[in-house]
Write a structure and sequence with these properties.
Layout: H1 6-14, H2 20-38, E1 41-44, H3 46-62, E2 73-77, H4 104-111, E3 115-120, H5 154-161, E4 167-172, H6 178-184, E5 187-190, E6 210-215, H7 218-228, E7 258-262, H8 272-287, E8 291-295, H9 303-318, H10 337-348, H11 351-364, H12 370-390, E9 396-400, H13 416-420, H14 427-432, E10 436-443, E11 449-456, H15 461-475
Parallel strand pairs: 2-3, 2-4, 7-8, 7-9
Antiparallel strand pairs: 1-3, 4-6, 5-6, 5-10, 9-11, 10-11
Helix pairs in contact: 2-3, 5-6, 7-15, 9-11, 9-12
The structure holds glutamine (GLN).
Length: about 475
């Protein structure tokens, strides 16, 4: 049961083959047995989960507001505020923070009747690509425990892959949903910027952050997106546009769909096994009637630099609020207020977060702003224009999710620059605000998952999901399970 999809569980719940209480118990037991090894959860909310399960069972038996998520046990990244449940963002500075309200994503999951099992580990403040930047402990990749699960939503992806929840919701600022999904052999979707409310989601880089589903298959991705997306008056950047039913057109096939292959995404230095798997996936879509077109995204080479200026600038501003006054850690000090701020931030933030605050403060400071932040914002527009031009000749863009499969723990921690390059293929999508999805497309000879990334037009998640569904149904990589 623990490896069942949301839609599979939902059928069993409706047919009374299983109760929400039993399903929740089964996942709590699974967490108990495997999370000692995987360490995908920072907090497991046993009692709240069981209480929610009882309520869900009542809704199911009364036929009251039943949705495909009613009674389904899920988890969320520890970046989403949960009323009464500790929300740490994997940082010491928020180690004991218990929010008095739910993030909109959490509220919508609860309204749909989902059971929240707990909070997944992540890189501190979502800064990282390996979950090794968590202030508490690293998470292991369920496919190979000495490897990273990717990041920053590594706990979410590992939990789904290890059968510790039916699905999770992560966040993606530069690849943090897609890259860990790729590393763990699950489906990760970053929606269009503004599709999902950011209210109650702890901010990293506000013009890039977006929440999205991490699931076992494409149908589940559409189910979660249906539940969490849509206008929210509590987030002024959330979009007013109507949303479709994302599950509706899944099976309509790829005949005639134009798939663009950007030459800038097949580069030297990428693992030949990754390239071979991605090219085979493209061939499969071609076999099903998609038309393959060569495209170019000429400003791709600037994406990582632009991202590390824009994201750090926004982070330096967003993280100014953690000063020991309003919430979280406060370090006692003999000196004045400024001294208290300094000691609190010194003790509360880890090295990667400090590095980013310093980089961002530098690029925003007078004398450097025009040369760095302003220039980066201008190049960001060129990157967005590249996509607009490319989508004149194609409907979807196919690339690898990352240049390699999951790397070994400790391999890149000492070298932040190589770590930053793990996101070379995922970052442009956030800069342009378009949707992107990662779907499993093979295993390396060492048995590690490989991700295929699909990018789409703004607001066109439906086409991404349709193409991914066609691929998934024909190949079945999503049904492979790690042995733990
Ligand atoms: N790995 C990238 C970073 O470290 C992206 C993180 C994210 O998407 N939150 O910033």
């Amino acid at each position: 049961m623990i490896f069942e999809t949301i839609h599979g569980l939902s059928k069993k719940l409706a047919a009374k083959e299983l109760s929400a209480f039993e399903a929740t118990k089964a996942y709590l037991n699974r967490i108990e047995t495997v999370d000692k090894k995987v360490r995908a959860f920072i907090t497991v909310s046993h009692e709240d989960a069981l209480k929610a399960a009882v309520e869900a069972d009542k809704r199911l038996s009364d036929g009251d507001r039943v949705t495909p998520l009613t009674g389904v046990p899920v988890a969320v990244k520890d970046i989403f505020c949960t009323s009464g449940i500790r929300t740490t963002c994997a940082s010491k500075i928020l180690e004991n923070f218990v929010p008095p309200f739910d993030a909109t994503v959490v509220k919508r999951l609860k309204d749909a009747g989902a059971v929240i099992l707990g909070k997944n580990n992540m890189d501190e403040f979502a800064m990282g690509s390996s979950t090794e930047n968590s202030a508490f402990f690293p998470t292991s990749n369920p496919w190979s425990l000495d490897r990273v699960p990717g990041g920053s939503s590594g706990g979410s992806a590992a939990a789904v892959a290890a059968g510790e929840c039916a699905a999770s919701v992560g966040t993606d600022t530069g690849g943090s949903i897609r890259q860990p999904a790729g590393c763990c052999g699950v489906v990760g979707l970053k929606p269009t910027y503004g599709r999902v409310s950011r209210f109650g989601m702890i901010a990293f880089a506000s013009s890039l952050d977006q929440a999205g589903p991490i699931t076992r298959d494409v149908t589940d991705s559409a189910i979660i997106l249906n539940a969490i997306s849509g206008r929210d008056d509590l987030d002024s950047t959330s979009l007013k546009e109507d949303k479709p039913d994302f599950t509706a057109g899944l099976a309509s096939g790829v005949r005639g769909l134009r798939i663009g292959i950007p030459k800038e995404y097949f580069i030297e230095g990428m693992d030949p096994e990754v390239e071979a798997a991605v090219r085979a996936a493209i061939d499969e879509l071609k076999k099903q009637g998609a038309q393959i077109v060569d495209i170019t995204l000429p400003h791709t080479e600037y994406a990582v630099s632009v991202y590390y200026l824009v994201a750090t600038a926004e982070a330096s501003s967003n993280l100014a609020r953690f000063d020991g006054v309003k919430y979280g850690l406060r370090t006692e000090s003999e000196g004045n207020l400024l001294d208290m701020y300094k000691r609190t931030r010194d003790a509360g933030f880890g090295p990667e977060v400090k590095r980013r605050i310093m980089l961002g403060t530098y690029s925003l400071s007078s004398g450097y702003y025009d040369a760095y932040y302003k220039k980066a914002s201008q190049v960001r527009t060129l990157i967005t224009n590249d996509f607009d031009a490319a989508f004149k000749s194609c409907d979807v863009i196919a690339t690898p999710t990352a240049p390699t499969a999951a790397f070994k723990r400790g391999e890149k921690v000492k070298d932040p620059l190589t770590m930053y390059l793990s996101d070379i293929f995922t970052i442009s999508c956030n800069l342009a605000g378009i949707p992107g999805l990662s779907i499993p497309c093979g295993l390396t000879k060492d048995g590690l998952p490989i991700g295929l990334q699909l990018l789409g037009r703004r607001l066109d998640e439906a086409t991404l999901l349709k193409a991914a569904f066609a691929y998934e149904q024909a190949t079945g990589w999503h049904k492979k399970r790690p042995q733990i």
